[in-house]
Amino acid sequence: MAEPRPILLDCDPGVDDALAILWIAAHPERFDLRAVTVVAGNVGLECTAPNARRMLDVAGLGAVPVYAGAHRPIMRARGKTSKMHGGDGLGDVGLPPATRAPEPLHGAQAIVETARACDGRLHLLATGPLTNLALALLLAPDLPELIDGITLMGGAAFGPGNTTPAAEFNFHVDPEAARIVFESGIPIVMAGLDVTRQAVLSPQAMARLSGPDAPLQGLCGSLLAGYHDPCLHDPAVVAYLLEPALFESVAGHVAIVTTPGDTAGQSVAAISERHLAGRAPNAQILTGLDQPRFEALFLNSMVTLGTSL
Ligand code: BDR
Ligand code: CA
């Protein structure tokens, strides 16, 4: 059997980020989670850092280090806070407080150092604004050669945004960072709203997650009850790494709009020869998802994690 893949999760927990952490934790045979870096996004860094620690602790990943990264976007004042995740970012479900403070290293530096320690095999998962990744690229221009790719949740290639008519939340919060990442030359898999709007759970699955025999003592059900968005955006990234065959995708060139206003963070995707106009694709854009298999995989993983803790 193949060795577990070394990964680093850059996130802004966030209920759906938290569910992504649980899903990673359910698959130690597939994922070697080297570090979690956090960024301001859904809530401020003062919440996302302890939230990552809280989730890793409940998921049995207490040894995984958490590094606090950017407290605001590169060019803008602190990003808009999302209203979707409750006051504390974790649906106010009353998880125990974080057991320890983040490690002293900055998140962007931690990305670089973790990449250097993994000899080109590290894969980055990003489920928040891309500020830390962009800063890491500015710190280490050789970062593209040090990692094997990025799978990220962000953008909306072929449909409307969820924060403005044109832009998705993660890209809208820090458009300049998204632009730096998309212009880096790193192979990117983009799980934007095109596909994450399909990443929903049926009423039957929701009932299973909150019923008397719910895995993880109903933790997923409680988190989802405090989450005011029907889509499991960030878990889609984990699903893709586990089972890429669940997804349909298209190669394209994604340009990020940085002009202030409603189009800030818009992801303009060119996929036809005419629109590419000679540019090489810079992303594999996920467009479709086998929802029943996604849901079954998620439920099975939560049961597996629940029985292993
Ligand atoms: C993204 O924004 C956040 O609210 C979610 O955590 C997800 O990463 C969806 O647009
Ligand atoms: Ca997120």
Question: Your description of this structure?
Answer:
It is a single chain. This protein has one domain: Ribonucleoside hydrolase-like (Inosine-uridine Nucleoside N-ribohydrolase, Chain A), CATH 3.90.245. It contains 13 helices and 9 strands. It has helices at 15-25, 45-58, 107-117, 131-139, 143-146, 169-173, 175-182, 193-196, 203-210, 219-225, 235-242, 273-276, 291-308, and strands spanning 5-11, 31-38, 66-68, 122-126, 147-153, 188-191, 247-256, 267-270, 283-289. The protein has a 9-stranded mixed β-sheet with strand order 3-2-1-4-5-6-9-7-8, with helices on both faces. Helix 1 runs parallel beside helix 2 (45-58). The chain starts with a strand and ends with a helix. The model has no long low-confidence stretch (mean pLDDT 96). The structure holds beta-D-ribofuranose (BDR) and calcium ion (CA). Beta-D-ribofuranose (BDR) is lined by residues 14, 16-17, 42, 82, 84, 127-128, 153, 162, 168-170, 233-234.
The largest β sheet comes out as: 9 strands, mixed
β content, as a range? 15-25%
Bound compounds, each kind once, are: beta-D-ribofuranose, calcium ion
- Identify the quaternary structure here: single chain
Keywords:
single chain; Inosine-uridine Nucleoside N-ribohydrolase, Chain A; alpha/beta; 36% helix; 309 residues; nine-stranded mixed beta sheet; binds calcium ion; binds beta-D-ribofuranose
Write a brief structural summary.
The chain has helices at residues 15-25, 45-58, 107-117, 131-139, 143-146, 169-173, 175-182, 193-196, 203-210, 219-225, 235-242, 273-276, 291-308; strands at 5-11, 31-38, 66-68, 122-126, 147-153, 188-191, 247-256, 267-270, 283-289.
